[in-house]
Design goal:
The chain is mainly α. Helices cover 69% and strands 7% of the residues. It has one domain: Four Helix Bundle (Hemerythrin (Met), subunit A) (Up-down Bundle). α3 packs antiparallel against α5 and α5 packs antiparallel against α6. Bound molecules: heme C. The site of heme C (HEC) has 18 residues, from α2, α5, α6 and β3.
Length: 143
């Protein structure tokens, strides 16, 4: 019985995360300093990858596009260093959006490896950026 209750509580946290009301229209996710630092560093990595990808497209260097994309693909989610507490604190929708971004970067890498068409890759990058925007409009972090 205790196990069932604990599991159910865990499941609710897994879906809702630890969120609170905020001063603006976004949902505030409550993270400690280490968790916040981890996610924000990952965010800055995404921005760096986009810089390398756009530069690669402008120079028709598909190898560079592929490498930069792959670096922030699904492989990046299995670093093993991420605080385990994040899994329960981030709402399911947040995790889903985040995973779709990593998956899309793997698709971008595949596109760069195979079709090698810069304008198609740029279009797909625009779609990824739309997901960044959607999430930034919906969530923020608080202590
Ligand atoms: C699943 C949600 C989500 C997705 C997807 C997402 N972000 Fe973020 N990002 C956030 C949140 C939340 C913050 C913190 C905002 C705040 O607290 O005001 C943030 C912050 C950032 C920051 C600031 C980092 C810092 O050091 O303060 C950058 C840069 C960033 N994101 C880039 C990106 C880029 C580029 C993408 C897409 C490739 C992206 N993010 C996708 C949720 C997301």
């Amino acid at each position: 019985m205790v196990i069932i209750v604990v599991t159910a509580t865990g499941a609710i946290f897994f879906i809702k995360g630890t969120t609170t009301a905020s001063s603006d229209e976004r949902t505030a996710i409550v993270l400690n300093a280490a968790e916040r630092a981890y996610v924000l560093k990952e965010m800055r990595g995404l921005l760096e990858a986009i810089e390398a990808i756009t530069l690669g497209i402008s120079q028709d260097d598909m190898k560079a596009v592929s490498l930069a994309s792959r670096e922030v693909g699904m492989g990046a989610t299995r670093s093993g260093n991420e605080p385990m507490t994040l899994i329960v604190k981030l709402p399911l929708e947040f995790k889903t959006l985040g995973m779709s971004v990593h998956r899309s970067f793997d698709e971008l890498a595949l596109e760069a490896d195979t079709m090698r068409d810069g304008s198609i890759i740029l279009g797909k990058l625009g779609a990824i950026l739309n997901t960044c925007i959607t999430c930034h409009a919906s969530y923020k972090f608080v202590d």
